[in-house]
Amino acid sequence: MIPSNVFDSLGKSSEVSGFAPQRSHLLSLVLRLLVMASAGITIALIIFLFGYILVKGIPNLSLELFSFEYTSENVSLLPALVNTVIITLAALLVSAPVGICAAIWLAEYSRRGSRLILLVRLAAETLAGIPSIIYGLFGMLLFVIFLRWGYSLLAGAFTLAIMVLPVIMRTTENALLSVPDSYREGSFALGAGKLRTIFSIVIPAAMPGILSGVILSIGRIVGETAALIFTAGTVAKIPDSPFSSARTLAVHMYSLSSEGLHIKQSYATAVVLLVLVVIINALASMGAKKLGAGKKYD
To answer: What's the predicted TM-score (pTM) here?
Structure first.
């Protein structure tokens, strides 16, 4: 004879075992719905933002906005457009090599887990979160006043280079660390040296992560206003030299909207700024893919 309590315990265990999968399935469904809702909200916000800028700005685009010289009548954005491209390229020429080389040292040459490396990473993460106006005040004290560069294109470019340097360094380091060690070991086994392994194997494999850091830096440079007002100035003309004052598109848009006299032209400037960011990011992506493909099969 089998005791009745045995059947009762079996029934309870089956109920519990049947309830657990149902609860897990319900939780997975709720999480999936939350993820889908978050993605939908994000996409909707992006579409709304792009649509709002395009609807407000495209009707206000005119040939006068692309005049070679700025006047109070045409409020041309062409000088600001040229200055934006120059400052972006100059800042990246300074920050990208330094940031990438620093990341290579942190990821490939330094002793992992040392206190110095932890201190450098903490400093980089702290600098990445500092408000841009602090960088603007620092750039004004160092470049404008101490080095006597004045309000100039060069002072603004160096200030922005310092501002985006931690972003490039941290994203590049994370990208290099994400490359499996088997890639390095295979290269060493074939007789390649440390430097050749880094530039022929590791960097091409980490190129998407490096690219993401450069793209983030471009977006921050192009959209920056506070740091440039204190260092590059607000003169709306194409600079004659690196020590001439310059106004970028973001500063130009801020100046027009703060004056309250050219709101429509500020919307048109926003459209040009948006298109410029998309073009620069697309060119950076194409260049990184070609560079990675060329290195990968050397």
So the answer is: 0.81
